[in-house]
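[User] At your convenience, examine this fold.
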Amino acid sequence: MSVTIRPGAMALADWRAIWRGAAVVLDRAADDAIAASAAAVARILGRHEPVYGINTGFGKLASVRIGDDELEMLQRNIVLSHAAGVGDPMPMPVVRLMLALKLASLAQGASGVRPATIAMLEAMLAQDLLPVIPAQGSVGASGDLAPLAHMAAAMIGVGEVAWRGKTRPAAEALREAGLAPLTLGPKEGLALLNGTQFSCSYALAGLFEAEALFRAALVTGALSTEAAKGSDTPFDPRIHALRGHQGQIETAGALRGLMAGSAIRASHVTGDARVQDPYCLRCQPQVMGACLTLLRQAGATLETEANGVTDNPLIFADTDEALSGGNFHAEPVAFAADTIALALCEIGSIAERRIAMLVDPALSGLPAFLTPKPGLNSGFMIPQVTAAALVSENKQRAHPASVDSIPTSANQEDHVSMAAHGSRRLLAMTDNLAHVIGIELLAAAQGCDFHAPLTSSDALEAARTLIRAEVPMMHDDHHFAPDIARATALVRDGSIAGVAALPGVA
């Protein structure tokens, strides 16, 4: 599969495909705007006037004029000095997405980079020659300077890259790939390391993982409702139409569809002594529907951001102007990341409450801890504790990053977004959530096993078939961790969500 980058006109589905590994090619219709922008920089330089980032220093040093004979060194110096990141390297799929985002931004023809610089990004993406980039060091304003500087450093042959399964010195890998290290022209170093592509790539990756987990949690939530012989009356469309929230309406419809035709449900339509189910069952449309709405809002913000130009200054070739502004400030991304974090936290929180309900015989009506021989066996006692631990960890991670700020660059950059922190935490949160949903899948399937020979709906039986092909019903205690790993794998690869048509996030 291949995705054509159409600068300024990409859909979330395009970025999702790139995140999943699709090849990337640039629409050649962008070439004229790229060339015009580079030519405008040359004309601006020809006026011999001070223009920020082209022939001046950077940040607090913007008043320092740089001579024409030092412009090449100026751009190289900004890359090397700003490549000051620390910590573990970025995951390579996120690096790849970041390079694609940078390519799409520069190719809009507002950044002043030459066609050769665009070609280098294209070649690195085509060959999966990806910079090794420390993940810590950005505050999400003035661009994601440190991580993007590490990207630019690899382009000029400094630092390391991952290529053909190995980490290699950048200069060596470029040579073997048939690429000459880039010599940066005026403004090009600044254009490469200014922008929100680090924060945006992490936020998009978190969103795409959240999409899949949201759908899986609808399936496991419906299966838990079946295991507890819960009612589907709270999913009646008339209830949700009166409130009017679209996400809630769609979520209730999905839960109704998942339970339609269930013999387990039919067995207790009349004569059930329980008047109302716990909130973790009854309020799924309200909680999950609100999460769906948040994820969609975040997706809309990130789609706009990914289609924008976020470096500085910006070049307007029609008037030969270089205008300095603040598009590099990642506040929109920070808010979107915080929103995704809240949704991830709540999806896991209500799922853990369903697990806790299922292991409690007073609430579920099932054997204690879902084991046929409680006492001799502990059953699902500790998997519920594990889910609780993961949910609490996500609660701690969900504190809004966007409310924080710290002055940098000698107070020139005195308000920053912290979008990098807010976005970077999301993949760790999705890892936690995937395990919580995997544990719920196991617990809900075990609960439904106690209702045999009654069966659930076709969709939920398909989910049970998937998990039972990997993990049999638990009769006696055994090593539990491999069961959780197998269940979580089914959650993460989309198998569980794939059993039914479910509402999309994008």
Remarks:
- The CA atoms of residues 66 and 74 lie 8 Å apart.
- The radius of gyration is 26 Å.
- The chain has a mean pLDDT of 94.
